[in-house]
Amino acid sequence: MGMKKPWKRLFLIVASALLLFWVFFPVYWVLKTSFAPEEEVWNMGLPRNPTLRNFRDIFSVRQGSMVEVSGAMLSISPTIVTPLRNTLLVAIAAVFLTMVVSSIAAFNLSRFSYRGKRAVSSYVLFAYVFPPFILMVPITVVMRRLGLYDSLWGLTLAHLAYTIPFATYMLRGYFLGIPQELEEAAQVDGCSRFQSFVRITLPLSAPGLVTVAIFSFVLSWGDVVFATVLLNTQEQYTLPIHIGFFLWGGEIVDPGRLAATALIAGLVPAFLYIAIQRFVQMGLVAGAVKG
Amino acid sequence: MSKVTTLAQLGKWSYILPALCVLGLVLLVPLLFTFWMSFQHMPIGRPPTFIGIRNFARIFQDPLFYHSLRCTVLYAFPAVGIKAVIGLLVALFLNQRFWGRGILRGIAIIPYALPLFIVCVLFWFVYDYRGIGNFLLRLGGLRPIHWLSYQYAMPSIILVNVWHGWPFFYLGFLAGLQAIPTELYESAEIDGASSFDKFRSITLPLLAPVFWIVCGLSLMWTMGDFVTPKMMTGGGPADVTLTIPIATYKIAFLLGLNYPLASAYAVAVLPIFVVLIYLTVRRLG
């Protein structure tokens, strides 16, 4: 045993270093580029004259961001303000609707038994794992018919296709873990079935609710599929569409500002995920391990 | 059935109704619509006409359809395999007890915490000719390459998907490892089993259920991955990364604006996904 220790230690250090390198090599580049002045963006090392200019620029239009294309002035990278606001609005609306609809549905699936419940559960699970690209064409047609094409409400509604099945499935698991006797006790004291759910079960599942809300938020925040097909004008663009304009013909336009935009767009979900790190593992695989 | 129980049944349904309505609107209706459209011909400005299976006949005669199927397989299977290997190795590593494990566990989920479109932007920088990819190649004494050229585009976008997706496997495997009772290892040690023996006859078999679920989900999502090819290559160069989702998108929105044909595309590949979903969901219970 004594001989094994130093080897094990060396192994742990090498493995840790490899893991850190693997995770951070692409992240590092965007971090350092976002603080780099224009002449240093393609340097490997940390910027010698770090600057916050890129961040200031993406929030305010300046003359330099306009280019002349065949007589017309085009803004090559307009500010992040509108797409950021749109993305936030859609994500918040989607989370709100998801939480209301899904918690009630999950309560139903975890507490009641009735004919057809198996079919409902299967449908929810089916929706959860369903690849969204198949819905690209028909959802566009449906939203056009509803007059919600190129509108943030239409996009919000489409995002519910991701979030509701997922949230319902996860919340069902949380509610199953909360003893039913507590609700029954409340009902003996005069609560209705629904009141006992709102006053007893919901507060007890607060960690679960927060986790599911954050996952839903990130799902909506990161959606490319529906934003690509449903949005058509610059006022409605969300971050993933906005960021696409930094690449022209396979070449990065304005690396500094692209990196700053990516940092802001990536920091929000990453921060939220780290905040609930303890619950992430639980949430994602609780169902998987049970089986 | 008496009147009271019927009412009670209705009461139970009222809880799930909002969810079913929304899911109906954003999932079931569009899905049925896809089926309907795939049998139509819809010229702009004129009413749609039923044309039977002509859209399907056109697809199955089109070499591009088989090409996109091949691309999807060439994209998804290596990606899922590599993700599984990296996820397993990291899970085994971070299941050891050592100082700093908690921080590393947090760091390991960063790639998965970043939305896929941000990951794609990270790799725009990696794959730029002046970027970090070629810097590493030079460091290893190799010539710089054009990462998204015809020759290298597919492996390059697979790497993007792998970098983003491996923590899903890691999380699943770690939970699976933690669920294995330590007594099993202890009694195996008493019987004189080596580390490799223990891994082969305890760890692997007990990890198998988790393994199949995680692989099934990931395979489905990787085959249906629209974001990576869209943001990295747009299906190019010369259609070398034209996976099914990209092909559907191009037919519907870029090239022909042909919704029925794109719907037929989606319907034609739907059985693959339904089988995968069935096999995976059955295990999820």
How many domains in all of chain B? 1
The largest interface is:
A-B, 92 and 93 residues
Number of helical elements of chain A: 13
Quote the beta fraction of chain B: under 5%
Proportion of residues in extended strands of chain A: under 5%
Per CATH, the architecture of chain B is: Orthogonal Bundle
* Major sheet summary line of chain A: 2 strands, antiparallel
Tally of alpha and pi helices of chain B: 13
Radius of gyration of chain B using CA atoms only: 24 Å
Gap from first CA to last CA of chain B:
30 Å
User: What is the total domain count of chain A?
Assistant: 2
CATH class of chain B: Mainly Alpha
Fill in the CATH topology of chain B.
MetI-like fold
Give me the CATH fold name of the largest domain in chain A: MetI-like fold
Low-confidence stretches of chain A: 285-291
What's the story with the biggest beta sheet of chain B?
Answer: 2 strands, antiparallel
Report the strand count of chain A: 4
- Total strands of chain B: 2
Structure characterization notes:
The complex is a heterodimer of chains A (291) and B (285). Chain A is mainly alpha-helical. In chain A, 69% of the residues lie in helices and 4% in strands. Chain A folds into two domains: 4-51, no CATH class; 81-290, MetI-like fold. Chain A has a two-stranded antiparallel ribbon. The two termini of chain A are 38 Å apart. Residues 285-291 of chain A have low confidence and may be disordered. By secondary structure, chain B is mostly helical. Chain B has a single domain (63-284), classed as Orthogonal Bundle (MetI-like fold). In chain B, a hairpin with a 7-residue loop joins β1 (40-41) and β2 (49-50). In chain B, α3 (63-94) crosses α8 (153-178). Chain B starts with a helix and ends with a helix. Chains A and B meet through α1, α3, α4, α5 and α6 of A and α1, α4, α5, α6 and α7 of B.
